[in-house]
Amino acid sequence: MIIKAAFLLPIISNLLEYHADELPDKHHPPSPLCLILSPTRELALQTEREARKFAYQTAVIPCMLYIERKRMLFFKFLLNRFGCWWS
């Protein structure tokens, strides 16, 4: 948990301080302001769980997207087809 706090707390603090006007309100759907990549599904779940704890009662809404290898290859194909760079 300490390792996750080392990068989650500054991210949440920065979002609240510098991007408060971009955080979701009741009239507009939220849009991503930060992306954290994890090498495994389990680590992504743990990171999201900790982010939810740290962002409790704030306007920050942590969420997780998990893409399996097969779907990621298709996603990469779509990005490349529309001219998006992917590494």
Commentary on this structure:
The protein starts with a helix and ends in a 6-residue tail after the last helix. The chain has helices spanning 2-18, 41-54, 69-81. It is mainly α and 87 residues long. It has one domain (2-81). The mean pLDDT is 79. The longest helix is centred in the first third of the chain and has 17 residues, at 2-18.
Helices, strands, pairings?
Layout: H1 2-18, H2 41-54, H3 69-81
Helix pairs in contact: 1-2
Structure described in brief:
By secondary structure, the protein is mainly α. Helix content is 51%, strand content 0%. The longest helix is centred in the N-terminal third of the chain and has 17 residues, at 2-18.
Q: What characteristic shape results from the CA principal axes?
A: globular
> What's the helix-strand series?
HHH
Mean pLDDT over the residues? 79
SS field, number of helical segments: 3
Instruction: Tell me the number of strands.
Output: 0
Report on the biggest sheet: none
Counting helices, strands and paired strands, the structural category is: mainly alpha
Strand composition percent? under 5%
